[in-house]
Amino acid sequence: MKTIKVFAPATVANLSCGFDVLGCCLDTVGDEMVISLTSEAGVKITKIEGAILPMDTHKNVAGVAVEALLKKYGKDIGIEIEIYKKIKAGSGIGSSAASSAGAVWAVNQLLNQPFSPQELVEFAMEGEKLASGNAHADNVAPALLGGFTLVRSYDPLDIIKLNTPKDLVMTVLHPQIEVKTSDSRSVIKHTVSLKQAIQQWGNVGGLVAGLCTEDYSLIGRSLEDVIIEPLRSILIPEFTAVKEAAIAKGALGCGISGSGPSIFALSKGIETANLVAETLQKTYSKTGLEFDIHVSKINNQGVKTID
Question: Which residues of 56-75 are buried (b: 16+ CB within 10 A; e: fewer)?
Fold first, then answer.
């Protein structure tokens, strides 16, 4: 196999209570990438469509991630990368993670899978470091492993794939404004009260337990963020109105997707998710801002080949 075409999925990170440690993979939103082995050593970005991004390998997240993989591989290999962006940069649903994860997964396939999924996460994190200044794994881990993932530890890296209840469906509202990850991180305080920490730990444990036992009520009760959301929500127009509308229509929970500006609502069943989408459409139309709405089941596979 000399060339492979892949679907690189969008992701929702943090899931309210799990800042930098929890994330899940979407099924209907993602980029497409074509990766090829070539005779000339080195990594080249040969085409980018759908976004204005650097063609320079060292300034492109996909290029940096693949270079990290090849450094570990230890052989001179030629790689060409084509990127067809369908996830908008700064959307909060893992645009940089999709490029990073899709590229390393594809190269690993072309090289007959010398690396484990966790090693691929480490390589993809180098792309995230370039994008935001922080090598976080809460987007690239679910993009590569699929479903819901937990970063138990960053040092050493320990990624756990969690159970995905079959009836969970995600509704994502993406306002057409850009909130850079670096800016979104700048509003976060570096210390929290013990009371906040205890509440947040309880919610993380509750969410993990709810996913594992498929207790939808527990999942909903645990989708609460007392640390990050109160600070970041001010960057997103009408966030509170959207959250209240989603919950009123039956969503289990609602919060900021990654660093924003996208807002996610998690529901039990496609009917509820579509109902939530309809009410968010009406709610956000009042702002005068352009926006997209996606409804997606959870992708339990992650990056995958396409024809």
Answer: ebeebbbbbbbbbbbeebee
- Distance from C-alpha of 221 to C-alpha of 223, rounded to nearest angstrom: 6
Joined together, the tokens standing for residue 56 give 């320079």
pLDDT in tens, the chain (307 residues): 799 999 999 999 999 999 999 999 999 999 999 999 999 999 999 999 999 999 999 999 999 999 999 999 999 899 999 999 999 888 899 999 999 999 999 999 999 999 999 999 999 999 999 988 889 999 999 999 999 999 999 999 999 999 999 999 999 999 998 776 667 777 888 899 999 999 999 999 999 999 999 999 999 999 999 999 999 998 899 999 999 999 999 999 999 999 899 999 999 999 999 999 999 999 999 999 999 999 999 999 999 999 8
Handedness of CA 87, 207, 299, 153 (dihedral sign): positive
Catalytic residue among 149, 164, 171, 181: 181
40 is catalytic: no
Catalytic residue from among 67, 126, 128, 229: 128
d(CA 106, CA 109): 5
Does residue 49 carry a catalytic annotation?
Answer: no
